[in-house]
Protein backbone atom coordinates (compact mmCIF):
# COMPACT_ATOMS: atom_id res chain seq x y z
CA UNK A 1 0.00 0.00 0.00
CA UNK A 2 1.44 3.37 -0.91
CA UNK A 3 1.00 6.36 1.36
CA UNK A 4 0.42 8.80 -1.47
CA UNK A 5 -2.47 6.83 -2.92
CA UNK A 6 -4.02 5.76 0.39
CA UNK A 7 -3.43 8.58 2.85
CA UNK A 8 -7.14 9.00 3.63
CA UNK A 9 -7.53 5.31 4.44
CA UNK A 10 -4.37 5.31 6.54
CA UNK A 11 -5.52 8.35 8.52
CA UNK A 12 -8.89 6.69 9.15
CA UNK A 13 -7.12 3.55 10.36
CA UNK A 14 -5.11 5.60 12.83
CA UNK A 15 -7.88 7.96 13.93
CA UNK A 16 -10.87 5.66 14.27
CA UNK A 17 -9.32 2.27 14.94
CA UNK A 18 -6.37 3.50 17.02
CA UNK A 19 -4.08 1.74 14.59
CA UNK A 20 -0.43 2.43 14.06
CA UNK A 21 1.08 2.62 10.58
CA UNK A 22 4.77 2.22 9.90
CA UNK A 23 5.92 3.98 6.75
CA UNK A 24 8.85 2.38 4.97
CA UNK A 25 11.18 3.48 2.23
CA UNK A 26 13.16 0.84 0.38
CA UNK A 27 11.95 -1.67 2.96
CA UNK A 28 13.26 0.30 5.96
CA UNK A 29 11.01 2.03 8.50
CA UNK A 30 11.32 5.82 8.25
CA UNK A 31 8.21 7.19 10.00
CA UNK A 32 5.03 6.24 11.79
CA UNK A 33 1.44 7.45 11.88
CA UNK A 34 -0.13 7.21 15.32
CA UNK A 35 -3.30 8.68 16.78
CA UNK A 36 -2.96 12.05 18.46
CA UNK A 37 -3.56 10.68 21.97
CA UNK A 38 -0.57 8.35 21.69
CA UNK A 39 1.54 11.10 20.16
CA UNK A 40 0.70 13.42 23.07
CA UNK A 41 1.61 10.70 25.61
CA UNK A 42 4.95 10.10 23.89
CA UNK A 43 5.68 13.83 23.71
CA UNK A 44 4.77 14.30 27.37
CA UNK A 45 6.96 11.36 28.39
CA UNK A 46 9.88 12.72 26.39
CA UNK A 47 9.50 16.17 27.96
CA UNK A 48 9.37 14.73 31.47
CA UNK A 49 12.42 12.56 30.84
CA UNK A 50 14.30 15.67 29.68
CA UNK A 51 13.37 17.57 32.84
CA UNK A 52 14.52 14.66 34.99
CA UNK A 53 17.93 14.62 33.34
CA UNK A 54 17.29 11.19 31.88
CA UNK A 55 17.35 12.30 28.29
CA UNK A 56 20.04 10.43 26.45
CA UNK A 57 20.33 9.33 22.82
CA UNK A 58 19.79 5.73 23.91
CA UNK A 59 16.64 6.64 25.80
CA UNK A 60 15.23 8.53 22.81
CA UNK A 61 15.99 5.60 20.51
CA UNK A 62 14.19 3.17 22.82
CA UNK A 63 11.21 5.54 22.99
CA UNK A 64 11.05 5.70 19.22
CA UNK A 65 11.25 1.93 18.86
CA UNK A 66 8.67 1.30 21.59
CA UNK A 67 6.11 3.72 20.11
Helix content: 55-70%
Task: Detail the poorly predicted runs.
Answer: none
- Main pleated-sheet profile: 2 strands, antiparallel
Q: How are the strands of the largest sheet arranged?
A: 1-2
Task: Count all strands and give the number.
Answer: 2
Distance N to C terminus: 21 Å
Radius of gyration: 14 Å
- Mean pLDDT figure: 82
- How much of the sequence is in beta strands? 15-25%
Q: What number of structural domains do the residues give?
A: 2
- Class by alpha and beta content: alpha+beta
Q: Shape, please?
A: flat
What's the order of the H and E elements? HEEHH
What is the overall number of helices?
A: 3
Describe the structure.
This protein has 67 residues and is an alpha+beta fold. The chain has two domains: 34 residues, no CATH class; 31 residues. The protein has a two-stranded antiparallel ribbon. The radius of gyration is 14 Å and the shape is flat. It starts with a helix and ends with a helix. The model has no long low-confidence stretch (mean pLDDT 82).
Task: Explain briefly what this protein structure is.
The chain contains 3 helices and 2 strands, in the order αββαα. The chain has 67 residues and is an alpha+beta fold.
Q: What are the key terms here?
A:
2 domains, alpha+beta, two-stranded antiparallel ribbon, 67 residues, 2 strands, 3 helices
Amino acid sequence: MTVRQNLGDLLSEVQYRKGKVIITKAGKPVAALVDIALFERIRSWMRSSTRCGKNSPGLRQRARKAG
